[in-house]
Specification:
Largest sheet of chain A: 6 strands, mixed
Oligomer: heterodimer
Structural class of chain B: mainly beta
Helix content of chain A: under 10%
Number of helices of chain B: 0
Shape of chain A: globular
Chain lengths: ~110, ~110
């Protein structure tokens, strides 16, 4: 079975500061990894995904994430955040050949002006 | 127009009532999913369907049923609503073989009194 852990339920960050949102996964097979963002009162949008190849993946709005197989992590980073980045961020995992996503519990990113 | 629509967007009902939440998509995807979102718990899969004749239970299907009326329509029913089914419900779609890149609707906020 696959699982995802997002240890930080809330992360406050000053505007223009860097941020890292942590995600660790557990799976006995190879995985696909995703980050989704949920802006207030909206559905989820795909931010970025890792399928294979380069372990550093770039997404929309200046976000990037690095797949680390040895540490079973897929942390999300942005070098300089903006007020508009205020949202909840979900990490998700899917095993190869399994067309179901397992989501983490989410991290609420709050940007402080 | 939105690719994935959900109706109603908000619903308040009473314990014991039958409720149907509807999802329609214009993306031409064959995979459709229903999730519920609860604070601190992330998204949990209720049911999913890979085509009109294929319906599968997710991790929390008790108390729910679904109907895939057409490739573009996937409905979720609560036969006898109870207060702990108060949550935000999301429909999502994906194309087969798309490595689980799912597209989400705007959500239905359901309150059971």
């Amino acid at each position: 079975a696959q699982s995802v852990t997002q240890l930080d339920s809330q992360v406050p960050v000053f505007e223009e500061a860097p941020v890292e949102l942590r995600c660790n996964y557990s799976s006995s097979v190879s995985v696909y990894l995703f980050w989704y963002v949920q802006y207030p009162n909206q559905g989820l949008q795909l931010l970025l995904k890792y399928l294979s190849g380069s372990t550093l993946v770039k997404g929309i709005n200046g976000f990037e994430a690095e797949f680390n197989k040895s540490q079973t992590s897929f942390h999300l980073r942005k070098p300089s955040v903006h007020i508009s980045d205020t949202a909840e961020y979900f990490c998700a995992v899917a095993n190869f050949g399994n067309e179901k996503l397992t989501f983490g519990t989410g991290t609420r990113l709050t940007i402080i002006p | 127009d939105a690719d994935v629509t959900q109706t109603p967007r908000n619903r308040i009902t009473k314990t014991g009532k039958r409720i149907m939440l509807e999802c329609s998509q214009t993306k031409g995807h064959d995979r459709m999913y229903w999730y519920r979102q609860d604070p601190g718990l992330g998204l949990r899969l209720i049911y999913y369907s890979f085509d009109v004749k294929d319906i599968n239970k997710g991790e929390i299907s008790d108390g729910y049923s679904v109907s895939r009326q057409a490739q573009a329509k996937f409905s979720l029913s609560l036969e006898s609503a109870i207060p702990n089914q108060t949550a935000l419900y999301f429909c999502a779609t994906a194309a087969g073989g798309s490595y689980n890149e799912q597209f989400f609707g705007p959500g239905t906020r359901l309150t059971v009194l």
